[in-house]
Amino acid sequence: MSTNNKAHNFHEEDKDQPPGFHRNNASGFELHKRAKLVAIHKALQADPVDVASLRKYAISKGGLLTDEIRRKAWKIVKLSF
Fold it and tell me: Residue ranges of region Disordered (predicted)?
């Protein structure tokens, strides 16, 4: 008996995505928001943290998306000045 990963909605490329990331049939806006969430998560996880990208996302439409991300990112961005 074989297993089908598609039946379980598993995507190998999603294994490192931030909490709350789920694939589904989302609108273009939702897909953009998810892509931005992934990019912010990667900037925060980079070593060293990608402060330039965090600043860019902070001033872009929608900002840093969630209060949790804002708290993490602003601590780092403020320390970089």
Answer: 1-26
